[in-house]
Write a structure and sequence with these properties.
Length: 89
């Protein structure tokens, strides 16, 4: 088997992306009551705690966001359900 090229990551960049994703996800949870009213049953794309686009089709949303934003590393995608669901495990 041929040697695979080593992928090198800049640790500080990776940590910054993870922190950004967490901030976006936390923001979505905080805003969920309002988001349910405005974006029910839609996917949203969030960048820097701001909605940059939405669509009922994830594929269509992904294509548009990729075309406009390029790198998707800074984008968090979430589905906004109409109702709150509680899962019991």
């Amino acid at each position: 088997m041929a040697d695979q090229p080593k992928i090198r990551f800049d640790e500080s960049e990776v940590l910054a992306l993870i922190r950004n994703k967490r901030r976006n996800a936390s923001w979505v949870q905080e805003q969920m009551p309002e988001l349910r009213k405005e974006y029910p049953r839609k996917f949203i794309a969030v960048k820097d705690r701001e909605i940059v686009d939405s669509d009922k089709s994830f594929d269509a949303l992904l294509r548009r966001v990729r075309r406009r934003q390029g790198d998707l590393g800074a984008i968090t995608f979430e589905f906004i359900s109409e109702r709150e669901y509680i899962y019991v495990l």
